[in-house]
Specification:
Blueprint lengths: L1 E2 L5 H10 L5 H12 L13 H10 E2 L4 E7 L5 E6 L5 E9 L2 E5 L3 E3 L8 H5 L1 E4 L2 H11 L7 E7 L9 H12 L11 E5 L3 H8 L4 E5 L5 H7 L8 H11 L7 E7 L7 H10 L5 E7 L13 H13 L3 E4 L16 H8 L1
Parallel strand pairs: 1-2, 6-9, 9-10, 10-11, 11-12, 12-13, 13-14
Antiparallel strand pairs: 3-4, 4-5, 5-6, 7-8
Helix pairs in contact: 1-2, 5-6, 10-11
This protein binds S-adenosyl-L-homocysteine.
Length: about 350
């Protein structure tokens, strides 16, 4: 049996065509599942009995199972799912004025080992399948109340560019006009900058967010060991090579950590590095956790850092993480794995 949430519309068309059905049947089925929310072929009333029977023998609608749903004071919801093999996947839903952003995971654990990130501390467990990435959306959807799902960010557990094939397919399903209809302008992939994987994902023209976190190579290597393989300058060169493609700008994420990368001198290095690059800078004050010794920056230092960039005509915003009180902030996902190990 195939998990329905693993296949793209093109693949479904191909499968049905091979079985002697018309391709447009795939469009009808896709609309039922992704737009009408129906997960039962018997209820797809515009299909023939013959086709219904074939589909029932071929597909199931397995979704990650919600194990816990934790509400933050700020209105966000953190979902803990259990996958088929019992592993835990986390997503965070962030409503604002009737619109919601959903932060999805792409892997269980992560290979990148960033020194400041809880998920990095877990190590790598496995890639999420397409159906587990898309499945987070399908499983959360019934819990959204009146708010509309407008934005998706691939910023949860894992490194999207290290699970490229599945992430690309998941994006295709999310963007499909006959499916989830999420516009590429509202779909953001956040990456440490694995340039080779990034190049492939970028062909889908989604919004890019690149985690820089330091403008000095040595500091970045300490925080993000992947900098040895894909150094800062390669990452910036890639973004420069994109030139002006008429689409919105690349975002650079910069986690500010006290005494490590939060001085005005650091801001100066960053401004120098990004000179002439069409971009936005998101400053993210570090979220502390019991699993790393780093500290959050002083508010005053964040303000000065931001002012330095603003004065040099950069777009720089301070992004306060949401759901921190429930362990759902940036870099906090997967805490449960480390708690279990301590016991
Ligand atoms: N692997 C991807 C996506 C997951 S991390 C990436 O690195 O971009 C999403 C963002 O959270 C990254 O910008 C990361 O630098 C940031 N982050 C990680 N740990 C954090 C923490 N403890 N506090 C604040 N931001 C953190």
């Amino acid at each position: 049996m195939i998990n329905f949430f693993d296949i793209t519309l093109r693949e479904l068309e191909g499968l049905l065509e091979n079985l002697g059905f018309k391709r447009y049947r795939a469009h009808q089925i896709y609309k039922w599942v992704y737009q009408a929310g129906v997960q039962d072929f018997d209820r797809m009333t515009n299909l023939s009995k013959d086709l219904m029977a074939t589909l029932k023998g071929m597909f199931h609608f397995g979704l990650p199972v919600i194990q816990e749903k934790v509400a933050s004071k700020d209105g966000s919801l953190k979902f803990l799912f259990s996958a088929e093999d019992g592993h835990v996947v986390e997503s965070v839903l962030m409503p604002e004025n009737g619109k919601s952003t959903l932060c999805l995971s792409t892997q269980i654990g992560c290979k990148m080992s960033c020194a400041f990130c809880v998920t990095g501390r877990i190590g790598f467990i496995r890639d999420l399948r397409v159906s587990e990435i898309v499945g987070q959306i399908m499983a959360v959807r019934p819990h959204m109340g009146d708010s509309r799902l407008t934005n998706i960010v691939l910023m949860g557990m894992g490194e999207p560019c290290d699970n490229v094939e599945n992430v690309i397919k998941a994006i295709e399903i999310m963007e499909e006009p006959l499916g989830l209809k999420i516009s590429r302008r509202r779909l953001t992939v956040s990456t440490v900058g694995l340039v080779d994987g990034l190049r492939l994902i970028d062909q889908r023209k989604v919004q890019l967010a690149i985690s820089l976190n330091a403008a000095n190579g040595q500091v970045r290597t300490k925080l993000m060991p992947i900098n040895r393989v894909y150094p800062l300058h390669d990452v910036i060169a890639y973004v420069r090579s994109l030139g002006d493609m008429g689409r919105t700008r690349v975002t650079f994420e910069y986690v500010m950590i006290k005494g490590i990368n939060d001085s005005v001198e650091d801001a100066r290095l960053l401004a120098e590095l990004l000179k002439g690059v069409k971009c936005k800078v998101n400053l993210i004050p570090y979220n502390e956790s019991p699993y790393a010794d780093f500290k959050s920056p002083a508010e005053e230092d964040v303000r000065q850092f931001q002012s330095y960039l603003l004065n040099r005509h950069f777009t720089a915003i301070v992004r306060d993480s949401r759901a921190i009180d429930v362990g759902g902030g940036c870099g906090q996902l997967g805490m449960r794995y480390l708690q279990d190990r301590r016991r």
